[in-house]
Design goal:
Length: 104
């Protein structure tokens, strides 16, 4: 399965989500708020800064804070996780969706 196809499969597997755009990149939204995106063959997740999920995501080798502009202005709640950890993408997608639902 292609990397982007896996991202779409995961996003579509979650209830009440819709495909959209986020900084010109494909994303999934819940309650009209982005919670995950696809960028440079990675999935990007909005996770509460300081939470266990956020720390776990950043602890993965190659994971970084998402910087969509490329101008060294990373977004503190968004973590970009490489394809090497595709087996964790679904769990982070669910955690991200739940976080966004709780604050929207």
């Amino acid at each position: 399965m292609e990397k982007e196809e896996l991202y779409i499969k995961i996003g579509n597997s979650l209830d009440n989500t819709e495909q959209s755009q986020f900084f010109g990149k494909p994303c999934f939204k819940v309650n009209n708020k982005a919670f995950c995106s696809f960028f440079q063959n990675c999935m990007v997740f909005k996770l509460k800064a300081g939470s266990e999920q956020h720390s776990d995501a950043l602890s993965l080798d190659g994971s970084i804070l998402f910087d969509p502009s490329g101008k060294n202005r990373p977004m503190k709640e968004w973590v970009q996780i490489p394809y090497d950890y595709k087996d964790k993408w679904a769990d982070f997608s669910l955690a991200s969706k739940q976080y966004v639902e709780s604050v929207s």
